[in-house]
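Quick one: structure tokens for this chain, please?
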Amino acid sequence: MNQRKMGVVLSYASMLINIAVGLITVPLMTHFMGTSEYGLYELMGSLIAYMSVMDFGLSATITRYYSQAIARGDERAKQNILALSGLIYLAVAVLTVFVGAVLYQAIGPVYSAKLTPAELLSCKRIFIVLIVNMTITIPSNLFVAVLTSEERFVFLRGVTMFSQALQPVMYVIVLCFVPTAFAVCVIQTVFNLAVVALNAFHCFAHVHMKIRLYSFDRLLVREMLGFAFFIFLNTVIDQLYWKTDILILGAVVGTAATGIYGIASRINTMYINFSSTVNSVFLPQISRIVTTSGSMEPVNAIMKKVGRIQFLVMSLILSGFICYGKRFLWLWAGSNYTDAQKAEAYYICLIVMVPILIPLIQNIGISILQAMNKHAFRSVVYFAIAIANVAASIPLAQRFGGLGCAVATSGAMIIGNIIIINIYYVKVIHLDVLGFAAEIARLLPVMLVMIGYGVLSNWLLPGGGWLLLGAKILLYAALFFALSWKFSMNDYEKQLVAGPVRKLWKRRG
């Protein structure tokens, strides 16, 4: 199995580990820290997430231009691109410190009305640690871009998976003695720095990455920055969509509301990442196709292939959550939250998860736009829709709390991420959206049948603890997989599953 196929498999394996870690750590944090301290953790996490935009889209930009240089076999261009990118990242690191200092000063005035003096002090300590984290890790995206362009997905995903699996062990050890959000942030920072060091070592020792400035190509720098700007705009939009709600709730309602919305947000983040992680695996290939071929046929083929895989996975998750999500949240959130709060978190999840299924299975379209350097329209439209989302979220949050924020986010998503972008795909990019929809329609019956089965299983066996819920979910997943294998999956999709299994079986034999 080649690196690209393994990249897809490991991307999903990484997501499974990430979900498992999330399922373990959230109850641990709420148990050790309490709802208010966990609310602080979510609040600062949302604030620092805005700092992640300081990458300015450079990682995807480097991947595109570096992949094109690989396709041309131009070693000198590869080294020069990395040197220019390094200079840009140096400036970004300085800017990150400056912006962090400004935001640090704003924490008190913005949140003093809803947070106690002790909570404000804790917020500032957490923020300092996270700024140090971001200042180092953002420039390290240079190494991630190189590993992605060279299609070293096994190493890249392997390091991530190891870090994900080890973190909850450290959480348990440390939270037993220091049950604070600050301690969790310190652990996360240490692990992030370790990943940076491993990626850098692999780039220099095994990929033989070389950085050399042959010429300060102003035209190339201008082109790269122009390309990166609209990816940066997309990142800002993502933060407006997914992180602003918690900031708004923290300012107008309080930490309890941020904790509830934070639980729903974590579920939604896991759901979204299952789709978006695979995109980086195909970006180098799409960039090379666009560089060497003027035909849209291979691009459309990739979009349909990836979209089918994503729908098979995302429809299992969505339908399973529709059937068993409410009971899961009731057990998972524990006694720190009331039944009404757990029900609210469930409905917040559904309000967002159902409509976002369509843009998630079309996520490869983002990579196509980036490879073709036609992502400007998408960025501008999404930015306008995101601003409207924020404007609607404030009054809705004041009246309906987290549910109001979820409705605003979902409505903006339907207008921008589904209606407008698909018109653009057809009219300007000439993607075969109707053919894509026909492929997905062939997979839809299994999802609908399984939702009916899930509702029936809850009627026959209501309530129960973790053991019964786990048995229901495992049986549901097994039946979903069996029906998909029989009626939906094609030979390529079956090979993605069967290939690794055969290899493991041969090694055992």
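The radius of gyration is 23 Å.
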